[in-house]
Design goal:
Strands 1, 2, 3, 4, 5 and 6 form a six-stranded mixed sheet that branches. The protein has 190 residues and is of the alpha/beta class. It has helices spanning 2-26, 49-65, 166-187, and strands at 35-38, 42-43, 69-70, 78-97, 100-118, 123-137. The longest helix has 25 residues, at 2-26. The protein is 34% helix and 33% strand.
Length: 190
């Protein structure tokens, strides 16, 4: 009787170890999906530059993370569709000097819709709206504005992504944050 309990126990441990090893090496992407087609980004906002910035950021991270092979539509296992819904600038800090209110810093807010489709099963893996932001000031260079532009606790020269013209850099920061959320969503689908 002890031998049977021991064998059941060993069998249970063996099954658990094999399951965990498979899970940790494969991740959570469905096993039949090895490639992705990135549909050209649709932009419903008035900021047309955001399309190129988001597209480049999405391609760069999918290539660097090497999670799914990016291929053409006809050969892909899945497709990701990104639609930019809005890009808006909201006053973030305001000063009252000389009887007028002046905007010192702006919050750039970007909202997108992301849909990931499984071609083999003909189903939608997810369909989510994602919003992100970045703060930028009125200085000539985002690297000297004294702001934590992306909320990571780093300011100016301490932060590697605070480079360039403030609003342009804010768009890149917001795009990168959106793409990070897309990547997390892809890798945690199940």
């Amino acid at each position: 009787m002890k031998l049977i309990k021991y064998l059941i126990y060993l069998n249970f441990i063996f099954i658990m170890m094999n399951s965990c090893v498979f899970y940790s090496t494969k991740g959570t992407i469905p096993s039949h999906i090895n490639s992705i087609y990135i549909q050209p980004i649709l932009n419903k906002s008035s900021d047309q530059e955001m399309t190129d910035i988001l597209d480049q950021s999405l391609n760069n991270i999918l290539i660097s993370e090497n999670i799914l092979e990016i291929i053409n539509y006809e050969d892909a296992d899945s497709k990701i569709e990104v639609t930019i819904l809005e890009v808006i600038d909201i006053p973030y800090t305001i000063s009252n000097e000389n009887e007028f209110e002046d905007v010192n810093d702006w919050k750039l807010s970007v909202k997108v819709n992301v849909v990931w489709l499984d071609f083999e099963k003909g189903e939608t893996l997810f369909d989510n709206n994602i919003s992100e932001w970045a703060i930028y000031g009125t200085s000539l260079d985002i690297n000297s504005d004294g702001l934590d532009n992306d909320g990571d606790g780093l300011i100016d020269s301490e932060d590697s992504d605070e480079i360039g013209v403030p609003r342009d850099a804010a768009k890149l920061i917001a795009a990168n944050k959106i793409v990070e959320k897309i990547l997390i969503r892809i890798t945690s689908i199940w």
